Amino acid sequence: MGLFGFFSKEKKEKLDQGLEKTREGVFSKLTKAVVGKSTVDDEVLDNLEEVLVTSDVGVNTTLKIIERIEERVSRDKYVGTDQLNKILREEIVALLSENNSADVSGLPIAEDKKPYVIMVVGVNGVGKTTTIGKLAHQLKSSGKKVVLGASDTFRAAAVDQLIIWGQRVGVPVINQGMNADPASVAFDTLQSAVAQDADVVIVDTAGRLHNKINLMNELTKIRRVMDKVVPGAPHEILLVLDASTGQNAIEQATQFVKATEVNALALTKLDGTAKGGVVIGISDQFKIPVKYIGVGEGMEDLQVFNRVEFVDSLFLNK
Q: Which residue among 93, 160, 174, 300 is buried most deeply as judged by most CB within 10 Å?
């Protein structure tokens, strides 16, 4: 079933492995935070606050979580430190639920929109093109006809890399080479997709433009020409962020949310970092659902984000 099947044992094991560094980092700190304590008091909460902030959950989100735990401690009167993991787990799941990061078990695309158009944004080096390639592979494996568009025309390497991914996956890549007008490439891509009766279109865009060109204007122009070919497109603007950059990923999200109407997030490279807590912070701060997470190098290691499975892996055996 690939990416869009129900959460398999293999995928759960891969997720567990991918979050190992974050899990070890958080819980080694959490153990120290409660050492010698039997109940959750102000000192434990102060220590927990420090653990969450240093795990890249973010200050505002951390304060929100601490406030919720304080309310539960106040309500329940006596809360032992042995219950802290359970309470923390429940509050993180609740927070992700409120931020629309829902549990997904089916196709994360709208079946009533054909072609379903995804515009992918993000700075260079976050794994944007790799994410597109893996997503295209798994969509194709699930029976979808996919077309890719190389609208990141300011770097020759970006166009070449997407073409290589297209060849590897076996899906067409519409491109006009380096320095072509990105909006023109997007226009051609959607026209080609419509002609081919494609199910899904994924268009890569520049993460950083030359100084003379405003990123917001360029992304707006691309969106406008897409809408001319497929009314309502793009249906999804997917921002790809590198989880290993921690708080820098939040700053990148801030800039792209200003530049365009981001409505989905993908967090890459979770397997190589202890900063997986940034997933929680970004989801909470921007109220944009996390849709995909990258937990390895393999084609199947881009997973649809499932908040319950994510938190279960984060608190594995705790």
A: 174
Neighbours of 88 (CB within 10 A): 23
Q: Which residue has the tokens 């497929």?
A: 230
C-beta separation of 316 from 23 below 8 A: yes
CA 287/CA 283 separation, integer angstroms = 6
CA distance 122 to 158: 12
pLDDT by position in tens, the chain (length 318): 444 544 578 888 888 888 888 888 876 777 777 777 778 888 889 989 988 988 888 899 999 999 999 998 888 766 777 788 888 889 998 888 886 655 444 457 777 889 999 999 998 889 999 999 999 999 999 999 999 999 999 887 899 999 999 999 999 999 999 889 999 999 999 999 999 999 999 999 987 654 445 778 889 999 999 999 999 999 999 999 999 888 889 888 988 888 889 999 999 999 888 888 899 999 899 989 899 999 988 888 899 998 888 888 888 755
Q: What is the dihedral of CA 289, 260, 181, 212, to 10 degrees?
A: -130
Maximum alpha-carbon separation in the chain: 68
237: left (phi over 0), alpha (psi -120 to 50) or beta: beta
Give the C-alpha distances (Å, rounded to integers) separating 140 from 52, 107, 135, 145, 218: 39, 12, 8, 6, 29
- Asked whether the beta carbons of 282 and 306 are under 8 A apart, the reply is no
Reference 10, options 2, 279, 106; nearest CA is 2
Question: Tokens 């979808």 identify what position?
Answer: 144
Residue 296 exposed, middle or buried by CB count within 10 Å (0-12, 13-18, 19+): middle
Query: Ramachandran region of residue 67, left (φ > 0), alpha (ψ -120 to 50) or beta?
Result: alpha
